[in-house]
Amino acid sequence: MIDECPPLLEDVLALFATAPSIELWIELKSDADGIPYTGLVEKAAAAINATGLDERSALHSFDISVVEQVRDVAPDLLRLVSVDARTAKAHGGMAAFLDRVGNLADVVGIHHELFEAEYDLIADTIGLNHASVWTINTPQLMQHWITRAPGFLVSDDPVQLKALMAEGVPA
């Protein structure tokens, strides 16, 4: 058996530095107890800046405190905060969550079920161009969200999503 491990962020950034049309949305994870890793924001921002990818990279997290750190450490990087129903509920509902992150995040990544349930609120509060829907993995969900037209679509099957987008699903 061959021992393999995930690539280092620096290796991934070096690879994408040669692909100027690709944007990088890098999620900053926390440990198994939900505690952010000390120094992770600083290390990620430094790696992005060192490769010159700061103009087409964003850092994101489910943890608002991590996105606040991104704002403080690397104010020029794009910031995304992700939310699902559980996270919204913990913050007092979707309206309260959006109010909390309105001036913090450039984009709010929203689970597709929550997005569907709160579509009008999201569109009215932050605008669709500042919203990302995740994770749309079936052709039906992809077609539905292509038509709904949020600013960003996230799928575990980007090849199929791109093909459906190219077919010109009516918006």
Automatic annotation (TrEMBL):
Domain of life according to the entry: Bacteria
Family annotation (PANTHER family): GLYCEROPHOSPHODIESTER PHOSPHODIESTERASE, GLYCEROPHOSPHORYL DIESTER PHOSPHODIESTERASE
The name this protein goes by in its record: Glycerophosphodiester phosphodiesterase
Organism: Paracoccus cavernae
